[in-house]
Design brief:
Elements lengths: L3 E7 L12 E7 L8 E9 L4 H4 L20 E8 L9 E4 L7 E4 L10 E2 L16 H14 L6 E5 L4 H12 L3 E6 L2 H9 L4 E4 L7 H8 L4 E6 L3 H8 L2 E9 L19 H7 L2 E4 L9 H13 L7 E5 L4 H10 L5 E5 L7
Parallel strand pairs: 8-9, 8-11, 9-10, 11-12, 12-13, 14-15
Antiparallel strand pairs: 1-2, 3-4, 3-6, 3-15, 4-5, 5-7
Length: 347
Amino acid sequence: MSEMNRAWVLDHYPDGMPTADCWRMEERARPAPGDGQVLARSIYLSVDPYMRGRISKAANYAAGVQIGEVMHGGAVAEIAESRHPDWKPGDLIETMGFGWREWAVLDPATEGPNGLRRVDPALGPIHAYLSYLGMPGITAWIALERIGALQAGETVLVSAASGAVGQVVGQIAKDAGCRAVAVASSPEKLAWCREIGFDAGVDYRAEADRLEDAIREACPDGIDVFFDNTAGPIHDAAMKNLAQNARIVICGMVANAGTFDQPDMGERHLRRILVARARMEGFLIFDHMARWDDARRALAAMAADGRLKFKTDVLDGIEHMPQAFINLLTGQNFGKQLVQVSEDPAA
């Protein structure tokens, strides 16, 4: 067992789009657990769009990362030492409170998203607990239930449709009898979306000069549910194509990663919301932790039945954490972005 603990800490806040030098790697002594705690070694570390807000000086819905602090983030990990009666060495866990590091001391008494959840390899690959069996998939499932209120025959438009949340949104929509339309950044990503069941797609880069028209052509009867993972120009174009009584789920704003600290930009759509009698609501999974297990069971059942497929993009080595995050923000990844730090004992 290594005595060292490599960790990425925030070096300075980004000015616009984050760059790799916003973080620096530090080597620290491997920590030891106290009474009631466990020591865990990361297997897979996650990067997610919400992290952009954590490295902003602007106010956010959760506390940000301070200069010199370990970067926040989730992980699937294996317990190496335990001083808690309910956890033992070898137990596999998932938590959003691990951080970008090899080793972490964790407190099983912690509640909410930073609490410890057991990983059951029987439900799927253990890295799936950071994707379709974890926050992205559960976000898709609960947001569609809570806000989307899907009805068979409706049109569901999904931005960042090949991403970690978008893939699941489209397949849940299809499972509910809806018509799913993908917005993604390349022909390859749209091909994957069609493979997993999307009915149509828009390449927002190829159609950048006519995005409103391209979405109208893909959604000729209007958009009943818009699941927005991006904000920005895609949001503006979608809002001009709403069907009456549309529902809009505001889940992510990755298109604004380079302008995060500036005032909100884009068109104002209050009149269109009025005319369409649309409902728009922001969604944060952290408000719905009580539904976590229900959503996970439903998603595992879909995957077991072959109704849910998922693509994961894995980089090897903790040294790649900043680049993995930048890849996510700039659309260079394909599927859920992870970094593998140590051997997967369930592979």
